[in-house]
């Protein structure tokens, strides 16, 4: 479930975003209500509501009055774009730093990635 | 409508023992509050005053703007549940419900029946003969079915096994969502229940240590780990709750949010930053040997 | 929730009278059984009920204790004030005493039937307000007066022990005063001869000691209720464990 080490609403938002990225939640699909979410994960409904509000603010979800929350049609592209931007700072840069610390030259990494690229083309 | 709970400068003593020493806070109501504290910290004393079980020694306790003690208009709307809801000696489970129904104007008998089934409490058995877990569960039934606008549970999970505890949390949430009210739960099983709370109050040695949104609290603690001197330099001027050392490595628990700039500095200095769980924060905030006074937050 | 409905302790009465009736039924059967056994195997010359029913005052005392000890916390836990509880408990006791005295009188009548069937003389052995078990109004008056002071003494002791723990023993002599006064008027005149000589209101159709018993019961009960209220009015509900 959720841990107590970071705000639960952020963990919920991340979970929903991952579901959108993976296609588990499609565009214009309805998501669970705040109360359903709270009951399912045994969390305070205000916490669930906060997560949903954040996702609405970010354009991942939209609200239909009196019906519920839905995934924005553009949500997946939006999230992919964000993650793409973060990919280099979150994944590549730490990898290079780690390689540097343990003495792997960058050329060797490039070589390795080149191998993956050839596989992808094949 | 939710009732505001205002406590100011509350003191309570038992003979020579000071149980509450100037406690003050305001709860806006309509939320689930967690009251955390070690054994003997004053949780029960505080709830006893809120529930009109005891007269405040000094200071004031108001619910909905009115004093609580011996005030029928207020006590009608409050319900404090300790083990078995004080019904341990009056007879069977049915007897306990018989009086609850008569005395509580907001009593929901059908809901009580459903809860008795959910917790598998035998109706014809003597309350005193029930196991501690079942007595606690009966207390939960009396508290939930009271539908009191301010319902307080004082460690109401004692002796309950894990499935019963989870059933309690689920019933509490479901009922809270269907019939919003103010719920105050005292506990030291923090990890298990903290996700239920919207706000958390921590008391220690009769004093309020902290009153905070639980979500804010979850991002509030940071552990800083690295070489001793680097950590020492980094945490200078910050509130350090605790320290661990392993050889020349030091891990300091810092209370308070670090800005982006500080985080960047930490990374540049080769320090590792990690989150701290509410449970750990609680342990450190209420540790017996605190050199500095802690964050000392009041609201 | 105003007026009689607010103060009438319907469930307190129902719960306690239900339990009392069960105890009473068993008690009557046992006592009558003993009486018949004595009549058949020995000499039965006086009322057995007269002796056996002395246990009832202790039962009434215990009910008085439990009313405070068990029900005050329940009332407070269910959102009632101590004042509301005290009102209901007082009405309960004022009704419980005559109810048990009626059961006591009924016991004499039932016993009278048994004695008649067995051909035994149905008469009393001790000193009472009444001269014989058939004088129902005087039987009722005597036991009502006794039970009223016993049940209120129970309430005072229940409150005192709940509040002071073992320190409650200090209140035993206080609670005993009205009890001794009433019994002096009803059956202990030999022990406290002065009571018999005190000028007392002569109620129509009663003796001087009946008036004394009634006066002592009402006065003693009022005094004990007032003392009990002093303990209850800001009584802390005890912490558990």
TrEMBL record, chain A:
Gene3D superfamilies assigned: Winged helix-like DNA-binding domain superfamily/Winged helix DNA-binding domain
InterPro entries, sorted: Tscrpt_reg_HTH_GntR, WH-like_DNA-bd_sf, WH_DNA-bd_sf
TM stretches of this protein: none
Keywords attached to this entry: DNA-binding, Transcription, Transcription regulation
PROSITE patterns named among the record's database cross-references: HTH_GNTR
CDD domains, per the entry: WHTH_GntR (cd07377)
Name of protein: GntR family transcriptional regulator
Source species taxonomy: Bacteria, Bacillati, Actinomycetota, Actinomycetes, Streptosporangiales
TrEMBL record, chain B:
Entry superkingdom: Bacteria
Residues annotated as signal peptide: none
Keywords associated with the record: ATP-binding, Nucleotide-binding
GO molecular function, one term: ATP hydrolysis activity
UniProt domain ABC transporter: residue ranges: 5-230
PROSITE patterns given in the database record: ABC_TRANSPORTER_2
Entry protein name: ABC transporter
Organism the protein comes from: Spongiactinospora gelatinilytica
UniProtKB/TrEMBL annotation, chain C:
Higher taxonomy: Bacteria, Bacillati, Actinomycetota, Actinomycetes, Streptosporangiales
Domain of life, per lineage: Bacteria
Regions that span the bilayer: 12-38, 58-77, 89-110, 143-162, 169-192, 212-232
Keywords per UniProt: Membrane, Transmembrane, Transmembrane helix
Protein name (database record): Uncharacterized protein
């Amino acid at each position: 479930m959720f841990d107590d080490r970071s705000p639960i609403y952020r963990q919920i938002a991340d979970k929903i975003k991952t579901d959108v990225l993976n296609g588990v939640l499609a565009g214009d699909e309805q998501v669970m209500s705040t109360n359903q979410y709270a009951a399912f994960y045994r969390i305070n409904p205000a916490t669930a509501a906060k997560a949903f509000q954040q996702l609405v603010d970010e354009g991942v979800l939209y609200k239909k009055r009196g019906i519920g929350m839905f995934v924005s049609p553009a949500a997946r592209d939006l999230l992919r774009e964000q993650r793409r931007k973060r990919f280099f700072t979150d994944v590549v840069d730490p990898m290079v730093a780690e390689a540097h610390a343990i003495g792997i030259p960058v050329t060797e990494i490039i070589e390795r990635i080149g191998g993956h690229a050839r596989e992808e083309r094949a | 409508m939710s009732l505001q709970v205002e406590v100011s400068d509350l003191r309570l003593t038992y003979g020579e023992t000071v149980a509450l020493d100037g406690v003050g806070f305001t709860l806006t109501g309509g939320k689930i509050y967690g009251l955390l504290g070690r054994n003997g910290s004053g949780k029960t004393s505080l709830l006893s005053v809120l529930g009109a079980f005891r007269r405040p020694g000094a200071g004031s306790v108001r619910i909905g703007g009115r004093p609580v003690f011996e005030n029928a208009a207020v006590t009608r709307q409050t319900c404090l549940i300790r083990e078995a809801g004080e019904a341990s000696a009056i007879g069977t489970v049915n007897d306990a419900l018989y009086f609850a129904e008569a005395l509580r104007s907001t009593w929901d008998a059908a809901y009580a029946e459903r809860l008795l089934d959910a917790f598998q409490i035998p109706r014809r058995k003597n309350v005193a003969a029930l196991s501690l877990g079942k007595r606690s569960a009966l207390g939960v039934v009396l508290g939930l079915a009271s539908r009191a606008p301010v319902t307080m549970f004082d460690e109401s999970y004692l002796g309950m096994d894990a499935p019963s505890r989870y059933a309690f949390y689920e019933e509490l949430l479901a009922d809270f969502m269907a019939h919003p009210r103010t719920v105050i739960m005292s506990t030291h099983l923090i990890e298990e229940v903290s996700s239920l709370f919207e706000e958390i109050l921590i008391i220690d040695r009769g004093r309020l240590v902290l009153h905070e949104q639980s979500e804010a609290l979850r991002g509030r603690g940071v552990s800083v780990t690295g070489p001793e001197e680097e950590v020492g330099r980094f945490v200078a001027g910050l509130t350090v709750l605790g320290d661990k050392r392993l050889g020349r490595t030091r891990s300091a628990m810092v209370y308070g949010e670090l800005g982006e700039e500080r985080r960047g500095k930490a990374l540049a200095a080769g320090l590792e930053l990690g989150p701290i769980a509410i449970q750990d924060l609680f342990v450190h905030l209420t540790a017996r040997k605190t050199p500095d006074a802690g964050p000392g937050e009041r609201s | 929730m105003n007026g009689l409905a607010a103060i009438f302790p319907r469930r307190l009465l129902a719960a306690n009278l239900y339990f009392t009736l069960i105890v009473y039924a068993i008690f009557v059967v046992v006592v009558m059984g003993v009486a018949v056994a004595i009549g058949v195997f020995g000499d039965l010359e006086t009322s057995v009920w007269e002796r056996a029913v002395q246990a009832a005052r202790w039962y009434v005392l215990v009910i008085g204790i439990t009313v405070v000890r068990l029900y005050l916390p329940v009332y407070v836990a269910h959102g009632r004030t101590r004042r509301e509880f005290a009102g209901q408990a007082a009405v309960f006791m004022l009704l419980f005493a005559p109810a048990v005295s009626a059961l006591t009188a009924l016991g004499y009548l039932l016993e009278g039937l048994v004695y008649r069937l067995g051909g035994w003389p149905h008469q009393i052995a001790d000193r009472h307000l009444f001269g014989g078990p058939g004088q129902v109004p005087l039987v009722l008056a005597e036991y009502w007066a006794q039970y009223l002071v016993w049940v209120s003494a129970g309430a005072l002791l229940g409150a005192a022990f709940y509040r002071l723990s073992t320190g409650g023993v200090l209140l035993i002599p206080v609670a005993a005063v009205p009890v001794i006064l009433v019994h002096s008027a009803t059956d202990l005149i030999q022990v406290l001869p002065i009571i018999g000589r005190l000028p007392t209101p002569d109620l129509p159709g009663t003796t001087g000691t009946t008036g004394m018993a009634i006066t002592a019961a009402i006065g003693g009960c009022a005094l004990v209720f007032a003392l009990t209220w002093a303990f209850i009015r800001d009584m802390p509900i005890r912490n558990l464990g």
